[in-house]
Amino acid sequence: MQIQSVHREWRSIVVVRLPCCRMKPWLKDTQGSFTIEASFVLPLILLSTISLLFLAMFVFQTSSAYQTAGIAADRAAFVWDNSKKNPITGAFTLGENDGLYWRLRSDSVSDLFSFLIPNPAAQIKLPVSGKQNADAGPVEKLRRVGSVVSSDWTGWMQYRNNGISREVSVQLAKPFHSPDYVEHRLASDVQSTAAAQVVDPVETIRVIDLTRTFIQEIKGRIKPSAALLTLVEPKSTPSKPVVINSHKTAVAYLQTLVNGSERTIKVNATTQRVVDAMDANQVAHQAIYTFSESQLRNEQIPKDAQLLQDGTAVKGVVWHFFKQTKNSEVKLSAGLRQDLERKGIVIVIHE
Length: 351
Known about the structure:
Elements lengths: L1 H27 L4 H46 L23 H4 L16 E5 L11 H9 L7 E8 L4 E10 L13 E9 L3 H18 L5 H6 L17 H12 L2 E6 L5 E7 L4 E6 L4 H18 L5 E7 L11 H10 L2 E5 L1
Parallel strand pairs: 7-8, 8-9
Antiparallel strand pairs: 1-2, 2-3, 3-4, 5-6, 6-7
């Protein structure tokens, strides 16, 4: 009886421990661990990739803003000396300009005195709206260049004249939409500022040439006391205006005007040309009072064209047309004007 009870207890113990031995392989099994890890890592990789894409877009938009602002500033500075220039190509029609004194009346010269009187710089808002006019002032010059800037950009263009330096500055901005989880790290809009200096090579060369030549010529030639005498009002009355009523009076007036004298020049072995007034620079001035276009084309133009082609006796030819007393103006056909221009003959009309 005792032996059986012990045997039963031993069997019960064995039965109790068997389930524990079967759970150990399940705990050591790694099947499915990759899926669990990927479920945590892949969202992080995806969010990081999207964030990098938006960062690249933000950098691209910023670069685009800087390029657009730089191009607008460069274009405004390039065409600043002539409001008739095309804001993109810089092309303009020959003879169209803002006049000789545009730097004094339409270049914000008042900015030079901003240290005494507050004076805001010339400025416009972008995009440009409204109709443009033919004014040559700084605001309209900015509007012409701003009209070619894309309307997707907002901002302003400004011009400031500091005397030594004249600068066009441009600021552009555009909204930038980013995801909520990176919105606090990226700006809500892209902005960029660019500036360009207005250069005027023609005026610079003119001032340098004046300083180098003209001032040296007049230096020491006149005393201050003598210079003051030149400002005294003349006591004598001016002479009567010259009346030109014939070819002879026209020639006399022309010789006085150019300080020239009559001269006969040999064109070829059989032809001579009588120049009414030859000046010191070997420019032949011809007075024309009564004329017919056929006679000018057949006789006078070939002679002067041959003289210009040779280039030895004369360096230039100028025809002066004088109005007859019975006519109200000098009438020249377009064909005659074109013939004279093609031959290199300059036309001056006295009315």
